[in-house]
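PROTEIN DESIGN WORKSHEET
SECTION A - STRUCTURE
LENGTH: 320
TOKENS:
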């Protein structure tokens, strides 16, 4: 069987190749009239393909995850599992006084509370609010501001590795990531703090900052840009393709909301609900992360001519 040119990337692949090693899509022979719809293009060869739709990116992410589910879950679990355990235990410990007050009060009693008890209820409610904010701030910044971006970076390396048809082990991928951990932390920690402040005070600034800083881990990892420069770079990339980025983040928000809903249905209590929610998050996390990585590559391909040769050269720098 003769070698065929892939319609997705324009490259020649060996016969009987089931999936394009560049884009991860099902192999389809190129034809003269066929229009390329995705993947990392080659500069100097065929015209650059049009941008991929969010649905196409999701399909590609799901297919990559289906093919390499064990690898992606292992890579994510290395840091996410201990981080999630610490997150759940910290929330349970911080919110324990609130639970004690709730149990002490009788919610089924129709009789009005006496004045001292009423004052205590008001004080307990105010304390519960403060403890809830404290729990969200302390555990949220750790899990969602540091742990998750590191997991996102490791999954980004795994995605790039699989797109190039490689099977680098999870140990090596994490070792690659830690080569740039200083650069990554210098970018994701300021992003997390600024976003946290925005959520704490007015919510809306936090939402906007989390949106524009969504690509910070990829920028720090693949471009070696740290600090506030990474934040500006992420802002520029997201602004250049804000609609697709918004749709991807909305998909992630829906997934997160579903995990919270399911966890609340099956378990009660702060610790149990948090653990189940984090377990479900781990299970579905690779899909939105892979999608955001594919979108990051596609934005750069669309605006800067980024191609798989540049990506391969970048991974080679990690392997040295």
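SECTION B - SEQUENCE
RESIDUE ASSIGNMENT:
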């Amino acid at each position: 069987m003769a070698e065929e040119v892939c319609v997705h990337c324009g490259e020649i692949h060996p016969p009987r190749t089931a999936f394009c090693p560049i884009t991860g899509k099902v192999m389809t022979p190129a034809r003269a009239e066929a229009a390329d719809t995705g993947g990392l293009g080659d500069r100097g060869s065929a015209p650059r393909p049009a941008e991929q739709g969010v649905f196409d990116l999701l399909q590609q992410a799901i297919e990559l995850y289906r093919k390499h589910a064990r690898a992606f879950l292992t890579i994510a679990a290395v840091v996410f599992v201990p981080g999630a355990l610490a997150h759940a235990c910290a929330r349970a410990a911080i919110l324990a006084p609130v639970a004690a007050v709730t149990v002490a009060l009788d919610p089924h009693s129709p009789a009005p509370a006496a004045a001292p008890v009423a004052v205590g209820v008001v004080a307990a409610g105010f304390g519960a609010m403060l403890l809830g904010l404290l729990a969200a701030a302390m555990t949220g910044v750790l899990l969602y501001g540091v742990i998750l971006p590191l997991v996102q970076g490791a999954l980004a390396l795994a995605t790039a590795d699989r797109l190039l048809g490689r099977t680098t082990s999870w140990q090596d991928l994490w070792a690659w990531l830690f080569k740039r951990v200083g650069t990554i932390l210098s970018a994701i920690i300021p992003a997390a703090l600024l976003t946290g402040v925005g959520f704490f005070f007015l919510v809306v600034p936090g939402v906007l900052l989390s949106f524009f800083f969504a690509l910070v881990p990829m920028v720090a990892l693949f471009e070696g840009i740290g600090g506030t420069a990474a934040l500006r770079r992420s802002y520029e990339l997201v602004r250049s393709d804000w609609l697709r980025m918004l749709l991807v983040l909305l998909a992630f928000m829906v997934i997160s909301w579903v995990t919270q809903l399911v966890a609340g249905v099956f378990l009660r209590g702060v610790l149990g609900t948090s653990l189940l929610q984090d377990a479900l998050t781990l299970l579905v996390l690779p899909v939105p992360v892979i999608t955001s990585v594919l979108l990051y590559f596609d934005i750069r391909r669309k605006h800067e001519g980024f191609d798989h040769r540049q990506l391969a050269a970048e991974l080679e720098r990690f392997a040295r």
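SECTION C - NOTES
Confidence is low (pLDDT under 50) at residues 29-38, 42-47, 99-124.
The two ends are 37 Å apart (CA to CA).
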